[in-house]
Structure formats: C-alpha cells, structure tokens
C-alpha cells in the first residue's frame, strides 16, 4: 500500500490540510514517494487510492499518474450514515 495522502500530509479533500502537519515541498514529496516506491515488491499488487493529480500543493509524478490511469480500479462503497460518521470523526474532532 502506498499512502499518497499520508506522504503529502494532506487528506486529499477541500479540508485536507486540517489537523495535518505542513506539507512538504513538491520535491521533498517526490523524494519521500520514491523512498516508499523502491521498497515495494513489484511481484505483488500495489494498492493506491484513486487521487487527483494534485494532493494539496503536491503533485503525483507523471510516471505514477499515467500508470494509475492505466490500472484496474476497484470501487469501495460505504453507506451514507457510515461516511458521515467517519467524516465527523476525521474533520470535526
């Protein structure tokens, strides 16, 4: 699993910076992502959350972004009351 949002110190939404440390520079983000990337076992599945190209002020490198666009997407759905509860815990507390 590669936590693109965690590496960017941003939750990826309009309120993504709330409660987070400051974001790294884009250069540092790419360096941190590279460190994670080289630790992966490419003989196994690699899991990423489907993100937009920008996560706050950081940008997913083109090479990874293109590969994400060409990869299989698995949609996970959650009932609305569960989503509301999760979002309240994440942003309102």
Structure notes:
- With 93 residues, the protein is mainly alpha-helical.
- It has one domain (4-91).
- It is built from 4 helices and 2 strands; from the N terminus they run ααββαα.
- It has a two-stranded antiparallel sheet.
- The longest helix has 13 residues, at 26-38.
Question: How would you briefly describe this protein structure?
Answer:
This protein has 93 residues and is mainly α.
Chart the SSEs and their pairings:
Layout: H1 4-8, H2 26-38, E1 54-55, E2 58-59, H3 62-69, H4 80-91
Antiparallel strand pairs: 1-2
Rough shape? globular
Compute the gyration radius: what is it?
14 Å
pLDDT average, as an integer?
89
Class based on secondary structure composition and strand pairing = mainly alpha
The total domain count is: 1
The strands making up the biggest β-sheet line up spatially as: 1-2
Helix tally?
4
- Portion in helices: 40-55%
Indicate the low-confidence ranges by residue numbers. none
Estimated share of beta-strand residues: under 5%
**Gap between N and C termini, in Å?**
27 Å
Helix-strand topology string: HHEEHH
Give me the count of strands: 2
Q: Major β-sheet, in short? A: 2 strands, antiparallel
Which characteristics define this entry?
93 residues; mainly alpha; globular
């Amino acid at each position: 699993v590669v936590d693109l949002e965690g590496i960017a110190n941003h939750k990826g939404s309009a309120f993504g910076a709330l409660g987070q440390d400051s974001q790294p520079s884009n250069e540092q983000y790419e360096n941190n992502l590279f460190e994670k990337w080289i630790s992966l076992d490419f003989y196994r599945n690699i899991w990423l959350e489907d993100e937009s190209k920008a996560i706050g002020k950081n940008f997913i490198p083109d090479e990874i972004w293109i590969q994400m666009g060409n990869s299989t997407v698995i949609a996970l759905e959650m009932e609305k009351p569960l989503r509301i509860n999760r979002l309240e815990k994440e942003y309102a507390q």
